[in-house]
Each structure stands twice: as structure tokens, then as C-alpha cells.
Amino acid sequence: MTKVVFGNAQVVLSDKTIKGAVAVEDGVISEINATEQIPAGAVDFDGDVLMPGLVDLHSDHLEKHIMPRAGVYWHALSAAISYDAQVISSGITTMFDSFGLVGEEFDSDRNAALERMISGMQEAADEGLLRADHFMHLRCEIIEPDIVERFSAMKDSPRLKLVSLMDHTPGQRTFPDPAKWKAHQKRRTGASDDALDAIFAARQSARDRFSGSNRRAIAEICREKGIVVTSHDDTTLEEVLEAEELGNSMSEFPTTRLAASEARARNMKVIMGSPNLVRGGSHIGNLSAGECAKLDLLDILASDYIPASLLHAAFRLTGEEFGWSLPRAVATVTSTPAQCVGLHDRGEIAVGKRADILRVRMHSGLPVVRSAWSAGRAVY
């Protein structure tokens, strides 16, 4: 049996923080002691925070590694390894890589890169080159005519544990104001007014024809396969009720206070983006994660597009503006997301749990990962 002990640490437990030591045997936490003494042979944390490794349910940051510039596709294995290194250095020991099954109007590069991303991650995993534990989160654009077929081709992947049902039709959800949608796409793509008007009309038509049946079909497949489903960008009561009817257990990135409140009232966990919290608001003007935190409507944070934002956001919740305890804040990025996707073996510093452990020190108000262990193995 292999054993390692960490001492002189501020240990973040589920309900309190203690000064103490944690022992790990064969990748599992075996002992926790409140003590001022440093056990013989222990790794000295020098007073740093010892906390669970982060569990991130949504990151599309792999796209930045596989496509460093528009139309440029990087070596798939190299991209996967580089991405994983950024993930683990951000303190994320369990990552849900978010792959989008989307349309072609603005996302032809993303679609072209999809197979490369999946194959690169699979090769890296098969060769033992990944330091974090990676699962798959499929983001399904339900207005696409062939989305059920595309999803069905991937539904049996052993790494697939989470599906989000998205509808980015302009005029609702993320962009209730079509003018804001048009301004956003102009900044993003440089498309002309005529091109955007044509895309707007086509998406409205596709939503009317396909969204309802596709949403139900994918939700039903997920029920059969035991895959967790989350709604996406809920805005109205009707959208939350639809998500509840389909058995969705989480509401990801609700855009209004009403939607977040109604989701919580129906026992759906509310997921908000950690960049939203760190920046002080949504980059497209939707619901603020900080507002959710103040209203006790925040359950889970996800890094979305900046892995380093996850730890930063959790510690920001402990500041004067929000006043959360450290254990409560840490739960939004560890135990709560883990439990929601059935990973009950991790996300907590507790005897019997998987030893995914971070050493964190504060520098000028910023939490910095100094070391990380995945299942007891030093990985950073």
C-alpha cells in the first residue's frame, strides 16, 4: 500500500475549515486530523489551503487549443495534452469537455474540429497522457434537422455523462432582443445585415419545425441511457416547466432571475458561469451570477470558456460582497457538481473519498494552485 500525509494545512471540509493533516492511501483519503503538529514525513503545506480538486461540468476551452486561429487546426493529440495541462494547473481534476453539435451558419470551423477534438482526447486518455479525469458533455442544438441522428451516433460513448439541450434561435433565451443578437454576430463574424437577416429567418423557421420534437427525442434517449440532462439559457416560466417535464435535473446559465428562481423551486440545480462571476456580469447582458449568489439561487459554477476562472470565482464568493463561507463556496465547484452527475466518489475532503486534492495559496487576493493530486497521484 502507498501512503502520503499532508500536514500544516487549512483543510476545507464540507461544513468547516480546520488546521490539520490529511492522509491518503492507495488514492483514497484514509484519515483527517485536526492538529497543529506536522506528522513525521508529511508534505508540509506551510499553512496553505487543502481542498478538493475542482469538478467542472462545462468547458469548451479545448476549441482554443485545437483551433488557435480561425481555419487553423492544430495536431489533435498535442492540443489535448496542452488543454489538459491548462485544466490541471487551474485546479480542475474532473473535467467535462463540452462538445457542441451545432449548425453551420457561424460554426463551420467548430464542426470541422469536432472529430479532431474527440479523437485527440481519446488518444491522450488511451495512452495515459491525461492528468485530469475527463468526461464528455454534449451540447445539442435542437433546432438542427439532423441533431437526433448526430447525437445518436455518439450516445454510447462511455465518457458521455452529461447532455445540454440548447436553442440559440435569436429572439428568445440568450438573445431575446434580435437587435442585440445581430450586433453580437456582427462583432463575432463580420456578417452583413442581409446575411444576418437571412440566418435569423432560417433559424426561426427551423425552431418552429424541429425544436419541440428534437428536444423530446434526445431527452428520451438520455433517460434510457442514464445520461444526465440539463436545460440551457432558460428565460421564462414556460421554458423551466418544459425542462422539468423532460426530467432535466439542472438549469444551465438561466438568463433571468425568474428562470433561476423557478428552476430552484422545482429542485433543479442552477449552474452559472464562473467568468460571469469574476467579471461582475454576463458579457452579453443576461442574468448576473453575482445576483444569483446574493439571492441564494446559485448551486454550481462552471468555467465555460476560461478554466482559471473556476477557482477564482469560488474564492470571490468568500469576499465581502457575498460573504459565503469557504466550505459553501468550494461546494459550488466540487461536491455539488460531482453529485449532480453521479460522481459520488469525489468532490469532498472526507474519509473514503477519492484523493483529488489541491494546494492553494492566496496571492494579492488571487487563489493560485501550487500543487495538485488526482486519485492520490501528484499531477502538478
Q: Which whole number gives the mean pLDDT?
A: 94
Number of domains: 2
Order of helices and strands: EEEEEEHHEHEHEHHEHEHEHHEHHHEEE
Radius of gyration: 21 Å
Per CATH, what is the topology of the largest domain? TIM Barrel
* Total strands: 16
Uncertain segments are: none
How much of the polypeptide forms β-strand, as a percent range? 25-35%
- Alpha plus pi helix count: 13
Assigned CATH architecture of the largest domain: Alpha-Beta Barrel
**Helix-residue proportion:** 25-40%
What's the N-to-C terminus distance?
Answer: 22 Å
Largest beta-sheet details: 8 strands, mixed
CATH superfamily of the largest domain: Metal-dependent hydrolases
**Shape, per Cα inertia axes:** globular
State the secondary-structure class.
Answer: alpha/beta
- Which CATH top level class of the largest domain fits? Alpha Beta
What this model shows, in words?
With 380 residues, the chain is of the alpha/beta class. It has two domains: 1-52 and 346-380, Urease, subunit C, domain 1, CATH 2.30.40; 54-345, Metal-dependent hydrolases (TIM Barrel), CATH 3.20.20.140. It is 37% helix and 26% strand. It is built from 13 helices and 16 strands. The strands form two sheets. Strands 1, 2, 3, 4, 5, 14, 15 and 16 form an eight-stranded mixed beta sheet that branches. Strand 7 (92-101), helix 3 and strand 8 form a beta-alpha-beta unit. Helix 5 crosses helix 6 (193-225) and helix 7 runs parallel beside helix 8.
